[in-house]
Design goal:
The chain is built from 3 helices and 2 strands, in the order H-E-E-H-H. With 124 residues, it is mainly alpha-helical. The longest helix has 30 residues, at 3-32.
Length: 124
C-alpha cells in the first residue's frame, strides 16, 4: 500500500474516532434531557467519491445499492437544494458591534475578559 494512501486511511480513522467521541457526548446530553433520539455516524463509504468505495452507492448503514435505489433515497440522506438554500439564508453575516448572527448562541463573555461588544476587529 502506498505510504500516502496508508497515511490518509490512518488520518481518516483518527477523524472518525474523534467524531465518535463527540457523538457519544451529544447522545449522553440527549439522554439526560429525555430525548429519545440518538445521533450516529454513517458508514465510512457513504457518499464517497474516492477510495475503495468510489463508484459504488453506499447507504449510511453501509449497504451497497444500485443507482436507481440511491437516487430514490438520496434526499433522505443528503441535503436537498431546499436545505442548502435555507442554510444560505441563515448564514447572513453580521458586522455590527455587539450583535451576533441569529443562528449563533451568544458567548457568556468576551475574549480575555473583554466585554462581548468589544471592538476586536476594525472593519474598514
Amino acid at each position: 500500500m502506498p505510504a500516502l494512501l496508508a497515511l490518509n486511511l490512518d488520518l481518516r480513522d483518527e477523524y472518525i474516532a474523534d467524531c465518535r467521541t463527540g457523538l457519544r457526548r451529544w447522545n449522553r446530553v440527549l439522554e439526560e434531557h429525555g430525548i429519545d433520539f440518538r445521533l450516529r455516524l454513517p458508514h465510512p463509504g457513504f457518499n464517497r467519491r474516492v477510495g475503495l468505495t468510489a463508484g459504488h452507492h453506499v447507504t449510511p448503514d453501509g449497504t451497497i445499492v444500485d443507482e436507481a435505489t440511491w437516487e430514490a433515497s438520496r434526499d433522505l440522506w443528503l441535503p436537498t437544494a431546499e436545505d442548502l438554500a435555507f442554510v444560505r439564508w441563515l448564514m447572513r453575516p453580521v458586522y455590527e458591534r455587539g450583535k451576533i448572527a441569529s443562528w449563533v448562541a451568544p458567548p457568556v463573555n468576551g475574549i480575555n475578559g473583554k466585554p462581548f461588544d468589544y471592538e476586536y476587529v476594525r472593519l474598514v
